[in-house]
Design goal:
This protein has 229 residues and is an alpha+beta fold. 41% of the residues lie in helices and 12% in strands. α2 packs antiparallel against α4.
């Protein structure tokens, strides 16, 4: 058996080998079956960032936001906070922690070389502890850099666009016809249905104000007055 394989299945690396394979296997299985990562303590790790242009579907950027759903996930969250690893989903943090600890323990045992008996157990305990400390540092550094990615985005609702300026995209706007482009506070561009009950000169390129929305029909009411630029 080669030195690498021997270290792989020996203490302390074997602990991190098993844990890393578990987490990696979990990612693969849940991806293949499309479960949305709702298992393992019901951690919701759905990173869907789509915005539905009909404004009826909320933006879903959970980033592991459901961390208080039960006592198990609450314990894991507390453990991560104790280690100073915050800013990313718990499952991803544990996965990185395990992989880094495995890599560091393998490197350490390879450098130390062949040791047997009680000495290997004592050295293994020291290496395991040191690997966890090093893995915690590396994971924390990554979590800090990636934290902005996992900040939940507030759901976009139709009412949020009331009071916004839009640009007409059709040749006319009547009480039965019209479309316009409007930009959200985040800079996204949406094409919405607009109507104007008054006689107007709105045409493609005209800028006007959205002052109301019909929640049932999802149609926005715009002013007959054009903004001057």
């Amino acid at each position: 058996m080669s030195e690498f394989t021997n270290n792989l299945v020996s203490f302390p690396a074997v602990i991190f080998t098993v844990s890393s394979l578990f987490f990696l296997g979990f990612w693969v299985v849940t991806t293949l079956i499309g479960s949305g990562f709702d298992s393992l303590g019901e951690l919701d790790l759905d990173f869907d960032t789509d915005v539905d242009v009909d404004l009826d579907v909320e933006v879903d950027v959970d980033g592991g936001a459901d961390l208080d759903s039960d006592s198990g996930s609450g314990f894991l969250r507390s453990a991560m906070e104790f280690l100073g690893i915050t800013g990313m989903p718990i499952l991803l943090a544990l996965n990185l922690l395990s992989i880094f600890a495995w890599a560091l323990s393998m490197i350490a045992m390879t450098v130390i070389g062949e040791v047997s008996g009680t000495s290997r157990l004592l050295i293994g305990l020291v290496v395991a502890a040191a690997s966890l400390v090093g893995a915690r540092f590396l994971t924390n550094r990554i979590a800090t850099r990636l934290e902005p990615v996992f900040i939940p985005t507030r759901a976009l609702r139709r009412g949020d666009l009331v009071g916004s300026t839009c640009t007409v995209t059709t040749l006319k706007v009547t009480d039965t016809f019209g479309q316009a482009e409007v930009r959200t506070a985040e800079g996204d561009s949406l094409v919405v249905q607009v109507r104007c009950d008054e006689a107007n000169e709105l045409t493609a390129g005209s800028r006007t104000l959205i002052f109301d929305v019909d929640e049932d029909s999802e149609i926005f009411r715009v002013s007959a007055d054009m903004e001057r630029t």
